Amino acid sequence: MARNKIALVGAGNIGGTLALLAGLKELGDVVLFDIIDGVPQGKALDLVESSPVEGFDAKFVGSSKYSALKGADVVIVTAGVARKPGMSRDDLLGINTKVMTAVGEGIRKNCPKAFVICITNPLDAMVWVLQQASGLPASHVVGMAGVLDSARFRYFLAEEMSVSVEDVSAFVLGGHGDTMVPMVRYSTVAGIPLPDLIKLGWLTKERLDKIVQRTRDGGAEIVGLLKTGSAFYAPASSAISMAESYLKDKKRVLPCAAHLTGQYGIKGLYVGVPCVIGAKGVERIVELTLNKSEQAMLKKSVGAVSGLVDVCKGMMKQAAAPKKAPRKAPAKAAKKARVARKATAKKAKA
Ligand SMILES: NC(=O)c1ccc[n+]([C@@H]2O[C@H](COP(=O)([O-])OP(=O)(O)OC[C@H]3O[C@@H](n4cnc5c(N)ncnc54)[C@H](O)[C@@H]3O)[C@@H](O)[C@H]2O)c1
Ligand SMILES: O=C(O)C[C@H](O)C(=O)O
After folding, report:
1. Residue of 309, 321, 323 lying closest to 132 (CA atoms)
2. Which residue owns the Cα nearest ligand 1 atom 38?
């Protein structure tokens, strides 16, 4: 059987880490694509030279041409700009909307049957733009954020209670922003819900509240430490778990930014919810019963996503509108021509 083809659009910090993980896990042959010519080629060569040491078989190719994406089974998109200290993810909207529009077009032309995972921020709006620009079915375009936010929540909980991360199951609902909703009631250690663990004395309500807030601020905490960019190891691991579930039809239940068509009362937006990811893409969306306070938090988070998508819609409409001919220059040119004609006529008379 031929190997799967994994295309990584954006060969920066996350792109390079994704490529290494895809190689180590032998998920398939890898194409790295980036607009900076030389970077994807250099990273591809460096990575493939690690294969004899690590013992994996895969081809690695770097390119700055969209045709390199031809026939890809999975595309993971990290192209664009990452934030720096003092910025919010939303500050990236203008520049990254343009990038997603170009990338979506490249995917549409070269690999319209692929399963596409968007990572670029602000995530919930960028995955919406990518789906619109690529024209791929919504079941095949998803956003990665929930796995990362949930991994942070799981890690902080495991650290607090001195238990293995493997036994902590937790997830985060809503948009990938300051208003994300870590789901305390549905998070467990070995099946025991967090509120029960508070009763057992494993955790205090005050510590749990701090962990919830640290989870919400998880991205900013790393940006503040790195200073030149944002997190990339955990984001890459998170996206690879989604790609693996699709390629191996594992049907894992993972929190992803999925296109909602009425679930949770939300229509036409991408928002983080638990999904079953299998060979058919997003195969199912898990709709949980939320209590009043969870509903209110989700509503706030969805409001933030909706506001960003409205800005994207405006930008895309403006970009698609026919350009009006510049009026000043021709008017000036016409005046110049009239003056020249008059001068010639005067000369002729004389
Ligand atoms: N969803 C999440 O949970 C999550 C987590 C971490 C980072 N991010 C986001 O992922 C994105 C990438 O992060 P990174 O750390 O890899 O950044 P990076 O700057 O290291 O890499 C981005 C790469 O994209 C390339 N690029 C820019 N415009 C392009 C285009 N039009 N076509 C192809 N490539 C293009 C750049 O040359 C660069 O190599 C950022 O927007 C960041 O905010 C999201
Ligand atoms: O915080 C960022 O800017 C990057 C990413 O969204 C993250 O959560 O690490």
Report:
1. 309
2. 12
Residue to mutate, 78, 81, 87, 89, ligand 2, most ligand atoms under 8 Å from C-beta: 89
131-190 pLDDT per residue, tens? 999 999 999 999 999 999 999 999 999 999 999 999 999 999 999 999 999 999 999 999
Type of residue found at 176: H
Catalytic residues: 176
Q: How confident is the model at residue 89 (pLDDT cuts 50, 70, 90)?
A: very high
Residue-averaged pLDDT of the chain? 95
Q: Output the CA 244–ligand 2 centroid distance in Å.
A: 22
Q: How confident is the model at residue 320 (pLDDT cuts 50, 70, 90)?
A: confident
Q: Quick one: pLDDT band at residue 123, thresholds 50, 70, 90?
A: very high
What's the predicted TM-score (pTM) here? 0.93
Q: Give mean pLDDT, residues 48-67.
A: 98
Burial class of residue 107 (count of CB atoms within 10 Å of its CB; 0-12, 13-18, 19+): buried
* Environment class of 253 (CB within 10 Å of its CB; exposed 0-12, middle 13-18, buried 19+): middle
Nearest CA to ligand 2 atom 1: 219
47 torsion bin: left (phi>0), alpha (psi -120 to 50), beta (else): alpha
* Pair 114, 89: CB distance under 8 Å: no
